[in-house]
Amino acid sequence: MERPKPVGAPQGEEASCSSWGTGSTNKNWPIMSTESVEIDDALYSRQRYVLGDTAMQKMAKSHVFLSGMGGLGLEIAKNLVLAGIKALTIHDTEKCQAWDLGTNFFLCEDDVVNKRNRAEAVLQHIAELNPYVHVTSSSVPFNETTELQFIKYWCSLTNLTYIFTANPGIVTCLESHPHKLETGQFVTFREINGMTGLNGSTHQITVVSPFSFSIGDTAELEPYLHGGIAVQVKTPKTFCFESLERQIKHPECLIVDFSNPEAPLQIHTALLALDQFQENYSRKPNIGCQQDSEELFTLAATISETLEEKFITYKCSI
After folding, report:
1. Residue 45 CA to chain centroid, in angstroms?
2. Which pathway does it take part in (predicted)?
């Protein structure tokens, strides 16, 4: 499978320039050979046995661009660096704020006071996690002229060997180049000879085998002759979430123990009661205090009445 050349990330502050097997002080990313990369078995032994050498080799040659150094972004960056990729560029345009201290475990109060960029503030900490990973930061804002085409979509190229004129039409790839696509993804075509109606068109695919996939009805198109490239297009997805206020009153709880399905809702109510107790008395209930136990139970019963989901309450002591 051919892949587009990675687009260079914006120049930013640099923390670590070493790569797998060899150290470097070059400010540019070191060029990775297509040959096998030597894996540090002392560092990656467990991961190597779980993922296998093929996956480890691919990660050792991977360049990753990660935008957003909030709580989730930082956790992803940490996992990527510990997994042993080749290079990581972290990006953020925001300054450190007080609320970041609750989600970003690498930030401190000085970062908030000095209004440091979030990516630059965590850069050194992330780089220290794995000396084999080249980590850089960027604070360049994204706009229509940003030369990072992969921000809009990542695409992978697949050389085609034949397209069957049928309903559904089956696209086959080179035997040594699996398409690595998944059902429901979208592809567009180019450089097809014969079935030119597919060039420039976008189709949702259904995987048939690692080397073939269907694209819908091609019975009305011209016969396929030769050539062609399928380009995977990543389309944006929109996710909608309910407000915190709505979820507090009508929580969607995950049941992990079907022998006690009411437990998640009871825990939810107990935590709300505990928060209300602390707000009322500026302290947490004392252990072994019957009065605090009764007050907490009363608060829990009151809160339970406001919830749309109901459960059976059991009075107990703290």
Report:
1. 24
2. Protein modification; protein ubiquitination
d(CA 93, CA 160): 41
DSSP-derived 3-state class of residue 292: helix
Side-chain-side CA neighbours of residue 224 (13 Å): 23
Residue pair 199/191 in contact by the 8 Å Cβ criterion: yes
**Contacts of 139 by beta carbon, 8 Å cutoff, 6+ apart:** 12, 91, 92, 93, 117, 119, 120
pTM of the model: 0.43
Q: What are the backbone angles phi and psi of residue 118, rounded to the nearest 5°? A: -65, -40
Q: List, in order of start, the domains of the chain with CATH numbers.
A: 14-146 (3.50.50.80), 153-233 (2.40.30.180), 244-306 (no CATH)
Task: Say how many C-beta atoms besides its own lie within 10 A of residue 218's C-beta.
Answer: 23
Separation CA 100–CA 112 (nearest Å): 8
The tokens for 147 are: 């030369």
Q: Which of 3-17, 26-40, 170-184, 228-242 has the lowest mean pLDDT?
A: 3-17
Q: How far apart are CA 158 and CA 136, in angstroms?
A: 31
